[in-house]
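For the sake of clarity, the format in which proteins appear in this thesis is described at this point. The fold follows as a row of integers, each naming the local backbone shape at the matching residue. One such record is shown here in full, so that the layout can be seen directly:
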Amino acid sequence: MWRGSAHPRDTRPESGEHDTASAADRTKERAQERTTERVNDTSDTKERQYPMPPFDLPEGDPFGPHNLPYGVFSLPGSARRTVGVRLGDHVLDAGAAARALGSPHAELLAAPTLGPLLAAGRTTWSQVRRALTEWVTDPAHRPTVEPLFHPLSAVTLHLPFEVADYVDFYSSEHHARNAGAIFRPDAGDVLLPNWKHLPIGYHGRAGTVVVSGTDVVRPSGQRKAPADPAPVFGPSVRLDIEAEVGFVVGVPSQQGNPVALADFREHVFGLCLLNDWSARDLQAWEYVPLGPFLAKSFATSVSAWITPLEALDNARVTPPERTHPLLPYLDDSATEPAGYDLRISVALNGHVVSDPPFSTMYWTAAQQLAHLTVNGASLRTGDLYGSGTVSGPNPHERGSLLELTWNGRDPLELPDGKRTFLEDGDVVTLSAWAPGPDGTRVGLGEVSGQVIAARSDD
């Protein structure tokens, strides 16, 4: 049994899980027969060459039973996708475990995407989480559950949910001030007048959200340097990253009904890491007057694991002090803390270049959701919204190359040479963790992507 500190285990069975002991026993017997056959049959799948997994995790493993993030995976040689839950460096076939143990939520967990689980709502999310915690910590379940684990190295991870709509915000004051100082150095106040009154955002493209590990093709478009007489077309020469956190909507809302701050956790299932790739030269030419378009629509990478909000209760913090009065729908002074203490790391070709602190974000995810819907815009299951670039007050806490190199003025010194913006072949990896119960850490996984050369017409 896992011996590290964990989320307190609720030993009550899920509602309806054991309506009759005999039926449940027969289900378990059949499941054990099937899993024994799978383990004894060594004719094909690669994962059977590995030792069976991880009830005995080292104490403090960031992917212990206190975490249990959700993803979607497939096995080698199989087109079948199913919901998986990460424990250590293994993934549990959650649907197979649910069927074997007679769970009433087996259909949700056996789906090829997280969509049905996301739509099921907060009560179901909690029930499923309690059940999963029991399955991976109670020794009585070990004979049934253990053969349903697969090493992460032996599976393919997929985009865990179908992205319905994608919105990206601009909610770090440090990032906004840095960007303002770079692009508007002569402005009296580098923050625009509306910035501290509402969370600035824009609508992106859901169809170009990709899972971690997907290559990113260098985008092409129009660009024009200040001294150039006319724009030119070609590959971006100022390709950048933006270290962000993405929030995943589960329960939809009805059009015309805004979502209040207090209802944030009724709608948002969890979070992921997000890299909003950006072409700064395309952005500089196109963004006036309506904001970014092609500069940000070509690729957005997300981590393969969605961490439920319930796993992050110990990471909740009070956001930074508000310096301007807020309108009632954004006023969170009387609500529970809605900030999150997430420690992000940005690595370029394996070399850490930044450690942005999410706790410094001026606008919270709850405020972003309230603003997103205040005009009556509806939510859909699978909506994704990004926090905006996460940057802290110190130079080593900046979440973009734009800031880290001050728009190319101050190149980064890396083991493989200097960098101002991304070169073909560069690999960017974001990782993160959050404080967990009893001094543990909650791992948030990683999101990684490699830049490949722009498509040629040849």
